[in-house]
Amino acid sequence: MSIFGLNLLNTAIPLLMQAPSGIEGKTMFQAFAEQSYQELPALNERATYANAWDSVVESNPAFANLPAFGTKQCAQLMRAAADSLPGFDADTFAEMRFSGPDGRPLSNADNNQKKYAILAQVAIGQQPNPAMMAKAVETGKRLARQADVRKSAGNLGAGKSNIQGMPKSTANDDIFAEGLAIYKGEHGRL
C-alpha cells in the first residue's frame, strides 16, 4: 500500500467514524451499527447498566450481599429502594443527572453508577444526601428543558413558511403562470 493510501486511512476513516449522521446527535458509525445490528443499542444499554451496578456493588463491602444485576431479586430491590425515597417517583429518578467537579453533566455510565449507588445505600438502610439528590434532579430537569429547546429550534423551518404577508401556496399553484401570461400577451404564443 502506498503512503497516500496510509494517509487516507489515517485521516478519512476517523473523520467518517465521528461525522454526524443527522439522527439525534449520533455519529455515522453509530447510525450504521444501529441499522445493521438493531439489537446492539439495547445490548449496549443493558451492559452499561450491568457494569454500573457491578461497580457499585464492588466499591463498598457493605454492598457485597446485594443481588446480581438482571436477576428478579435485583429488580425488586431497586424498585423497592426507589419507591422508598420520599418525593421521588420513577420518572424523577430516571431524569436525575449528576454533575462532575467541573459542573458538566456526567457521562451516562457515571450517572448510572451514581444512581445505583443511591439505590444501594437505600437498600442497606442508609440515607443518601438529599441536597445532592435535589441538585441532580434540578440538573436533569434543566437538561431536559435545554433538549426540548434545541429540538423545537431544529423544527422551526421544517418545510413550512410562517412568514406574514406571504400568500399560502398550494400544490396546484404554478409559479410560472404569471410570467407565462405576460409573455403570451406580448408574443402571442410560446
Concise summary:
Helices cover 61% and strands 0% of the residues.
**Terminal-residue CA separation:** 60 Å
Structural class: mainly alpha
Helix coverage percent: 55-70%
- Give the overall average pLDDT: 78
Please tell me what the overall shape is.
elongated
Provide the low-confidence segments as ranges. none
Rg, rounded, reads: 27 Å
Strand content: under 5%
Order of helices and strands: HHHHHHHH
Q: How many beta strands in the DSSP annotation?
A: 0
How many helix segments? 8
Main beta-sheet annotation: none
Please, could you describe this protein's structure?
With 190 residues, the chain is mainly α. The protein has a domain at 39-149. 61% of the residues lie in helices and 0% in strands. It contains 8 helices and no strands. Helix 4 (72-84) crosses helix 6. The model has no long low-confidence stretch (mean pLDDT 78).
Observed structural traits:
190 residues, mainly alpha
What order do the helices and strands come in, and which of them pair?
Blueprint: H1 3-18, H2 28-36, H3 40-59, H4 72-84, H5 90-94, H6 108-123, H7 130-154, H8 177-187
Helix pairs in contact: 3-6, 4-6
